[in-house]
Amino acid sequence: MIVVRQMMSEDVAAACQILNEIIEIGGTTANELPFSKALFVQKYLDGSDKICCHVALDDRGEVAGFQWLGVNENLPQDCADIATFARQHPVLKGTGRALFRETVKMAGAMGYTTLNATIRADNAPGLSYYGKMGFQDFAIAYGVPLRDGTPIDRISKRFELRKDAAC
User: Fold this and answer.
1) Is 17 helix (H, G, I), strand (E, B) or coil?
2) How far apart, in whole angstroms, are the C-alpha atoms of residue 116 and residue 100?
3) Which of 47, 95, 118, 151 is the most exposed place for a label (fewest CB within 10 A)?
């Protein structure tokens, strides 16, 4: 059973480690530099653009992943950005789906009508995940350079919240 709740300060070390391992593996996040715990807190726990951030806990109570929802000034006011990160070792099947259920409830309750995910075009697992959650392709930013100058397209996918999503 996967328990999902709001991220708390005691989750930061494990969640930061999950994100940094994903960054180290490469190819599945736009983040290219590892996060210190302080920077992680600033972005995912206390950030002024944060709407909510949930963690998924495995049966031992350890963080198996997290999902952040935030405001983006480049999006319409009723549209929120979403980012999802799941533990790579050991994988906990269903983490992303469990997180998404809670995020959708929270977003709907707060009046958001659309979620936006922007994914690197070379991130096949991320594109697949958001597709399985019901996101539809919306736009492409072509040739966004990585730190080393390598151009990688970014695909924005949108999810329309149902009126009953907040229940």
Assistant:
1) helix
2) 13
3) 151
* Amino acid in the structure at residue 139: A
142 to each of 20, 44, 114, 154, 155, how far by Cα in Å?
26, 27, 23, 7, 9
For residue 28, name the pLDDT band (cuts at 50, 70, 90).
confident
Token output for 10 = 């005691």
Contact status, residue 157 vs residue 130, Cβ threshold 8 Å: yes
CA dihedral over 21, 156, 95, 52, signed as positive or negative:
positive
How far is residue 71's CA from residue 56's CA, in Å, rounded to a whole number?
22
Q: Are 79 and 114 in contact (CB under 8 A)?
A: yes
Which residue in the block uniquely carries the two structure tokens 């005691």?
A: 10
The answer to whether the beta carbons of residues 44 and 66 sit under 8 Å apart is yes
